[in-house]
Write a structure and sequence with these properties.
single chain; alpha/beta; Rossmann fold; 9-stranded mixed beta sheet; 6 helices; globular; binds S-adenosylmethionine
């Protein structure tokens, strides 16, 4: 799977990337009431400028992505100095208050996530095949502490053929997360020209540490 994603990045097939911060992030993040001192986990982050937006309002950000191409392209967006180091098998690049961990999200362990208190997920589920999504939801629940809040933006569509982007309907999102999170459905976007519809959710981690 990681090779397929790397190939997409190398060939520039990254239609999911947005040049501006996601409008739903701008609309809904404040309503989560996450303290600006809180470090935000951004799983499967690509080179999303949403991380810049979160950093610019005061958060420290930990993005995780297995395509080094994405990370390098993100860092090139600004001339700010970058420091690099290795930690727990990941190459970490830090620029200002954004740190990007290059590697597999499923290899990130709670020891490395100790400071995380919130999360932002856009388009992670739709990048993962069905069988991996439950593992993703459980892994996220392992990484964030009880009480952690997050915004989740996903997509459903009725296109034929294999993903990504996979279609992830609202019922599946509820089933994936309900064991360890309280979910609040915030809004559904209008279908785009291909009939793809975004759904926006607020999540709060509940229950004990896993
Ligand atoms: C659909 S893109 C979304 C990127 C970003 N969240 C955004 O909104 O632009 C999914 C990204 O996840 C990365 N990815 C997929 N599986 C991963 C994994 N297991 N660990 C780390 N990154 C992964 C891919 O390389 C790709 O950049």
């Amino acid at each position: 799977m990681s090779e397929q994603w790397r190939k997409r990045w190398q060939e520039g097939r990254i239609g999911f990337h947005l040049q501006q911060a996601h409008p739903a992030l701008l609309r809904h993040w404040a309503s989560l009431d996450v303290d600006v001192d809180t470090k935000v986990l951004v799983p499967l982050c690509g080179k999303s400028v949403d991380m810049r937006w979160l950093a610019d309002i005061g958060h420290s950000v930990l993005g995780i992505e297995f395509a080094p191409e994405a990370i390098e392209q993100f860092l090139l967006q600004r001339s700010t100095a970058v420091s690099r180091y290795s930690q727990a098998g990941f190459t970490v690049s830090r620029q200002g208050s954004v740190e990007l961990w290059c590697g597999d999200f499923f290899h990130l362990h709670i020891q490395q996530a100790a400071e995380i208190g919130a999360f932002y997920d856009r388009a992670s589920l739709i990048a993962l095949p069905p069988a991996t999504r439950q593992r993703y939801a459980f892994h996220l629940a392992q990484l964030v502490p009880p009480g952690a809040k997050g915004l989740l933006i996903s997509l459903s569509h009725s296109e034929e053929g294999a993903g990504p982007p996979y279609s992830v309907p609202a019922s599946e999102i509820e089933n994936l997360f309900k064991a360890n999170f309280t979910l609040t459905f915030l809004e559904e976007g209008s279908p785009d020209e291909r009939g793809r519809t975004e759904s926006i959710w607020a999540l709060e981690r509940r229950g004990p540490r896993l």
